[in-house]
Amino acid sequence: MECQKKYGGLFKMYFGFAPPFLVIVNAKHMEYVLGSTKLLEKSRDYRFLHNWLGKGLLTSGSVKWRKQRKILTPTFHFQILEQFVEIFDEYSGILIKKLETEVGKKSVDIYPYVTLCSLDVICATSMGTKVNAQDKSESEYVNSVKAMSRIIMDRSLSLIKMFDFLYCFTNDYREENHALKVLHGYTKAVIKSRKQELMKASGISDSPSEIEDDLGRKKRKTFIDLLLQYNKDGQPISEEEIREEVDTFMFEGHDTTAGAMTFALYSLSKNPDIQEKVVEELRSIFGDDKDRPVTLSDLQEMKYLEAVIKETLRLYPSVPFYSRDVHEDFEYEGTTVPKGTSLLLFVFGLHRDPDTFPDPERFDPERFSQENLRGRSPYAYVPFSAGPRNCIGQKYAMMEMKSLVSKVLRNYELLEVPGHKLLLSPETILKSLSGFHVQLRKRKF
Predict the structure, then answer these.
(1) How far apart are CA 225 and CA 222, in angstroms?
(2) Is residue 265 part of a domain?
């Protein structure tokens, strides 16, 4: 942020002996990079994800990415996402019960509660399985996800751990191997189980169909089911490719949404007038019934809450920066950007540009009213990236965030903890080293 203030929206930054990053903090330049069909290669720093995610949608090169994106896009169709609303509501209900023990206390860090709820949701929707993270927060699977998220960030910043030949002598290397054994073992076991269920349901060994429950009703399809059923020109997706995509979905759809939901709840505790507007909208939808399960129609009516979430992602984008590698020279406005350059897209700084967002530190959902959106570049606000490699799960994420945040606000009033300040840190995703402390009070809905 200091460099942005000093040098503007485009500057080079050096990290040790590595080639420099060209840092982009300008909507016009951002549009050129994100809108390009040539600048699709993720930077070398994404290699630290390969042991866990392989070459899934997030980390794959442009050739494989195009193939995988085409396969995966139908799995995020709105009709498929609709069946997940019940899951969002179910696990949000468990969260509400867990938070009851914190009502009336002077301070509670809500992040651990929200992230475990998000982990429950992602396991249920992507794998059709229950890890009961909210009840078993110290489970081996939950701890392995936490360990991998920490190790990936540590490797990108450590002069020793970033080199494979030195990293193999560290404790993190041994911890990563154990975590990967747990994570990959779990995913592979679920894939095998779901495949057997689908085969049994179809009665045809090479053509999996629908899974039915004991009453003959079709069970909701999960991410794994849809990938297992994919078959084009006699070419199904391999089990290893399915594992890569499911693990990618676990990684991208767990911490990112948990962080955004927690930042939203924290921001509402700091802005009681905005919180009350959201509650008024919820009362217009649910009346005085704080227990009625949320529906897709309800989520679609939460216009102001959606603006609140968008403003949260402006100030606190889950992924504060991402990067691309230049694999061939290209000309831009009379300047040659050479092959080998890494482009660092600084989203956090972009979203706090006072020319686009006046008084940028102020939390104001009205920035996303139809009137205020007119004339603003779509590349001035990119929490889900943009262009060809935008986030495939952004509709899923918005539905989950609306469901959880609305459930919390229907049950609890969020109050500010005097003196508590966020200490922002990009640990794979944007987090706060000081936690997210609020006070909870039962709401008379």
Answers:
(1) 5
(2) yes
pLDDT in tens, 389-416: 999 999 999 999 999 999 999 999 999 9
Show Cβ contacts of residue 278 under 8 Å, excluding neighbours closer than 6 positions: 268, 304, 305, 308, 406, 409
Does residue 194 lie in a domain region?
yes
What's the token pair of residue 90? 């179910």
Three-class secondary structure of residue 435 per DSSP: coil
Nearest to 398 by CA among 286, 313, 322: 313
Amino acid letter, residue 319? V
For the chain, how many residues are written? Answer: 445
User: Predicted confidence band at 172 (pLDDT cuts at 50, 70, 90)?
Assistant: very high
What is residue 232's predicted lDDT score, i.e. its pLDDT?
66
SS3 334: coil
Q: How far is CA 186 from CA 29, 191, 261, 424, in A?
A: 42, 9, 27, 32
What pLDDT does 421 receive?
95
Do residues 258 and 245 make contact, with C-beta atoms less than 8 angstroms apart? no
Is residue 47, in this structure, part of any structural domain at all? yes
Per-residue pLDDT tens digits for 203-223: 644 444 455 544 344 556 788
Assess if residue 250 is contained within a domain. Answer: yes
- What is the mean pLDDT of the segment spanning 423-429? 86
Least confident range from 77-81, 102-106, 297-301: namely 77-81
The pair of three-digit structure tokens given for residue 286, joined into one six-digit string: 């649910």
- Asked if residue 40 has pLDDT above 80, the reply is yes
Which H or E element spans position 342?
strand 342-346
Structural domain boundaries, residue 174: 36-319+383-442
Give the C-alpha separation, 257 to 393, whole Å.
10
Residue 353 has a CB neighbour count (10 Å cut-off) of: 16
Whole-angstrom Cα distance, residue 135 to residue 98?
A: 9
Return the CATH number at 182. 1.10.630.10
When divided into structural domains, the chain yields a total of 1
Cβ atoms 166, 225 nearer than 8 A = no
Stretch (H or E) spanning 235? strand 235-236
**Residue 3 counted as an annotated binding residue:** no
Cβ count within 10 A of residue 444: 7
Q: Where are the alpha helices (DSSP H) in 287-365?
A: 296-301, 303-315, 347-350
